[in-house]
Amino acid sequence: MTNPRHSHVLGLITHLAKQLQEYWFLFILLVWQWGNLPPLWRGVAIAALVFWFLVWPITKWATLTYAVTPDAVIIHSGIFVRHHLHIPYPRLQTVQRQQWFYLRPFHLETLQLETASHEDSQPEVRLPAVPTSVADTINAYRRQTAEPTATPHAPSAAAPDNPAAATSPAGPSYRITRRALTQFALTSTGVIPLVVVLLGIYGKLPKSWENQAIDQVAHYALPLLLGGVIIVLIIGWLGAYLWVLLRYYHFTLTRTGDQLETVKGFFQRNTVTAPIARIQAVRFKQNILRQWLHLQTVQVLLASKAATDDDDHDLVLLPAITQAQLYATLHPFIPWVPATAPDLTDLAVPRQARWLLSRNALLVVALPVILLCWLWQPWGWLSLFLVPLAYFQGQFAARNTGGRRLSADLIVLQTGHLWTRETFVVRRRQIQSMEVNFSVWMRPKHLAHLTVNVRHGNSKQAIELRYLPAEQVQALYDWYTH
Amino acid sequence: MSPTSHHLPPRIKRIWGYSTLGSFLFGLVATGLLYWAQIGWHWPGWLVVVSAVITLVEPIVEAGLIPYRYRFTRYQITPVAVEIQSGMVFKKRLAIPIARVQDVTLKAGPLLQWQKLTQVTVATAATSHTIEGLELATAEQLREHIMQLAQEARHD
């Protein structure tokens, strides 16, 4: 595979489809202006479209070649400006494979490679329709060239001499249960944007229909309206449920040596491989619905944007796992995560400081609520609903804030923002910087805010814990700076 | 912060003073333009008044705060970390371990150059932080120290 190769002809379809998806409006423009164009210009326009939608993508496909050498992946691309990209294996963060069902019979897939470079939000390399053996070879080479110092936890059997051994998973593996997946899909907050869109459409229905309907059944107007809203909610919720179900269908996590691999999806099987040594932090996430069901989602923060379609663009390791099993299940995959649930009371908000979080939340909503009540009557009064919401959000944050230093190299931090509890497990060497904030009024009360910055995608994840005991924060700061 | 931390070089106060003067001049120009617009195109008169008040008050407040700003901004460079402390009412303490530093940028505008000072920006893989002014020698020392550490193998 050391010679430059083209991707499969089916990859051409991807190129064509992408061009069509991005510039479909040019067709509309042509049809719309057809009558106004003189015959000569009609010809020119058709020629331009044929060029733009057929010749250009074909040329692009024809000029894109790749080679997998023992040291690096090499990509040649570009028509007028030729790009030659070399990615040495130690620099690879994640290898992502996406296989649509129609490519399965041909053993083809889309391959995405990512490094930690700050370039932009696109993956460095995207190869549509290449044989599945390409990714296998890359993964095998990557394991061979893994820096020994960067993988202190790798078992001795980590680096197979034979690339073919890459396909046989040897470590622990986890498969999502049907029950957990259903609960996970049912409690997805993905329903919210969907409902907003549907309500938008509902609101855009021609007024005449609505008036007609309301005129005909004037005394049913309210039930009709409510019924509409309920139908929208049900459709939105079903849609979100199906969406999650299809994306996380047969979710599997396996560990092979020092690499983690997740596989998921129904129509599109999505496989992501990431080295354990490259994990910046582990995050457990739980919205308030899932808190009631004791269900957690485990994600890892990486220095690349693998998995752009996952929650918050972070690679999901365990989509839905019960709180009781979480640590025991995760520990075999990521050895530095503790095997049992740690006690997080060291960094809790003191009881007498809890009201401060509610006060701050109330201050944030105060001005909009006052303005709405004053300027937009009578509907503005509805905004008063925000007041208890803000109060309880403050209490939620106070109750869920927690953390502890587990060892000389590991801390666990927990926050409660926006009705979501997030727990981070971070190693000391992955903390990029630490910040302590306190106002002159907090000092006599011995309180301080703590911010821990870790790398996340191409930017940062600031983990902020507010109103903690100052001595505990100071102790953590001293631990970090010494 | 421990007694080994330092204030910024005292000359930075002069630079803050000049930058205050700069914002006063900018305010004067803006107010003048608004006045012109009021005469020429009958823009409302209160715009000129508001602009004039801001032009007068903002530099006075800024200039008045300079001694405090100086007093409460400190930095410390130890063999293992860069620490920055700032803020009077809302205090902030920041630590960046030198092993986490990806690059150091020295930057100086005309004023800083004239005073032989330079701004130092320390960037990690996730965040970047600025010390407003350091002696050229100190800044270069810091940069050398970090570059030296960077020679050792790093795995990110």
What's this entry about, in short?
The complex is a heterodimer of chains A (482) and B (156). Chain A is of the alpha+beta class and 482 residues long.
Break the fold down into its secondary structure elements and pairings.
The complex is a heterodimer of chains A (482) and B (156).
Chain A: E1 5-6, H1 9-23, H2 25-33, H3 39-63, E2 65-68, E3 72-77, E4 83-88, E5 92-100, E6 108-115, E7 125-131, H4 132-144, E8 173-175, H5 178-186, H6 191-204, H7 207-216, H8 221-247, E9 252-256, E10 259-264, E11 268-275, E12 281-287, H9 288-292, E13 295-301, E14 315-322, H10 323-330, H11 354-375, H12 386-400, E15 402-407, E16 410-417, E17 420-427, E18 431-439, E19 447-456, E20 459-469, H13 470-481
Antiparallel strand pairs in A: 1-2, 2-3, 3-4, 5-6, 5-11, 6-7, 8-9, 9-10, 10-11, 12-13, 12-17, 13-14, 15-16, 16-17, 18-19, 19-20
Chain B: E1 6-7, H1 11-41, H2 45-72, E2 74-77, E3 81-86, E4 90-97, E5 101-107, H3 110-114, E6 117-124, E7 128-135, H4 136-151
Helix pairs in contact in B: 1-2
What do you see in this structure?
The complex is a heterodimer of chains A (482) and B (156). Chain A is of the alpha+beta class. Chain A folds into four domains: 5-167, no CATH class; 178-247, no CATH class; 279-349 and 401-481, no CATH class; 351-397, no CATH class. Chain A is 38% helix and 29% strand. Chain A is built from 13 helices and 20 strands. Chain A has helices spanning 9-23, 25-33, 39-63, 132-144, 178-186, 191-204, 207-216, 221-247, 288-292, 323-330, 354-375, 386-400, 470-481, and strands at residues 5-6, 65-68, 72-77, 83-88, 92-100, 108-115, 125-131, 173-175, 252-256, 259-264, 268-275, 281-287, 295-301, 315-322, 402-407, 410-417, 420-427, 431-439, 447-456, 459-469. In chain A, the strands form four sheets. In chain A, strands 7-6-5-11-10-9-8 form a seven-stranded antiparallel beta sheet. Chain A has a six-stranded antiparallel beta sheet with strand order 14-13-12-17-16-15. In chain A, a hairpin with a 2-residue loop joins strand 16 and strand 17 (420-427). In chain A, helix 1 (9-23) crosses helix 3. Chain A is globular, with a radius of gyration of 27 Å. With 156 residues, chain B is of the alpha+beta class. Chain B has two domains: 7-71; 73-151, Roll (PH-domain like), CATH 2.30.29. Helix content of chain B is 51%, strand content 28%. Chain B has four helices and seven strands. A four-stranded antiparallel beta sheet of chain B has the order 1-2-3-4. A three-stranded antiparallel beta sheet of chain B has the order 5-6-7. In chain B, strand 2 and strand 3 (81-86) form a beta hairpin. In chain B, 23% of the residues are buried. Classes of the chains: A alpha+beta (482), B alpha+beta (156). The interface between A and B is medium-sized, with 28 and 24 residues. Strand 18 of chain A pairs antiparallel with strand 4 of chain B, so a sheet runs across the interface. Chain B: The chain crosses the membrane at residues 15-37, 43-66. Chain B: Residues 70-146 form the YdbS-like PH domain. Chain B: This is Membrane protein. Chain B: Pfam families: bPH_2. Chain B: InterPro entries: YdbS-like_PH. Chain A: This is Membrane protein.
